[in-house]
What we know:
Layout: E1 44-46, E2 53-57, E3 60-68, E4 71-80, H1 83-95, E5 101-102, H2 112-116, E6 120-131, E7 144-146, H3 151-161, H4 170-178, E8 182-189, E9 195-203, E10 207-215, H5 224-238, E11 243-249, H6 253-261, E12 265-266, E13 271-275
Parallel strand pairs: 4-5, 10-11
Antiparallel strand pairs: 1-2, 2-3, 3-4, 6-11, 6-12, 6-13, 7-8, 8-9, 9-10
Amino acid sequence: MSGPGVVxxxxxxxxxxxxxxxxxxxxxxxxxxxxxxxxxxxxxxxGSWPDSVTLRRGWARAEARPWNGDHAEASMRxxxxxxxxxxxxxxxxxxxxxxxxLSPPLPTGAQKVWRRAGYEVFLxxxxxxxxxxxxxxxxSHLVVEAGVECLDRIAxxxxxxFDSFWRLDHRGLTEAVEATKNxxxxxxxxxxxxxxxxxxxxxxxxIAYLQxxxxxxxxxxxxxxRSLVRVAGRIARSHGANAVLLNTQYDNDGALALYEAEGYRxxxxxxxxxxx
Length: 276
C-alpha cells in the first residue's frame, strides 16, 4: 500500500516512497535552498557498501543506501549541496556497485538540482492530502503503537504486500520511521498476537506524513488498511497537525480508491522519482 517509500526527504519527508499494500510513502518535505556549494576538496565517503554510506565534500552532504535487498540500484538523499556535488556522489555510488541511482519522491521545484546532474524522471507519483479539520470515522480494528523491535515482522509484511521493486527492507523501514523527528509505528495484531498490518506516520508541527501502510495478503479484505489510515489521521490531529500528506503510484488503483474514500484529495502537482 505504500510504494516508493518515504516521500522524498528533501523532498516531502521531513518537517524541519504488485501493490497489495496501501502505498504511501511520503518520505516529508525538507527543501534546502542552496546557492553556494563547496566544489573544492576531496569527496569523503563514510560507511561500507552495500551498507548505507554518507558522502561529504566541505559543507555538502548526501546519504545513499541500496534501494532494497532485491534490486541493485541505490537510493540517494541530497541533504546539502548542488548538482556538481550530486554528480560526484552518483559517480562514487555507481563505482561502489550500484547499477543506478534513484532520488526520493520530489516536487517539481526540488528536481532542478537533480536534472542538472543528469537525472531524468523515472516515475510520477500522486500526492494526496487529508484535511484533518474534517471528522475521521471510527476504525473497525484495534490499532496499537509498536516499537522498532517489531521491524523484522513489519519487513515480512512489507515483502509480502509489495512487489520486489517497491519493497522496503529493514533499512528502508528504519529510514521511514526516522524521516521525521517524531513518528509512530502502528500495528494491528492477528489472532495469534502477530502483526498483520502496519502504518508509519511521521508527525510534524502542522503537517503529518503517512509514510507507509501495508497489510499482509492473508489479512487483506478485512478493512485493516482502512483502520490503520483512520488511526494514523487521528494521531496526527492529536499532535497538532492540520493535514496528512502521502504519495502513491498512479496505477495503484486499490490504494487510491481507499484514500479517496477516506477523504484524501489529490493535489494538482505530482511528485516524481528521478533516476540515472
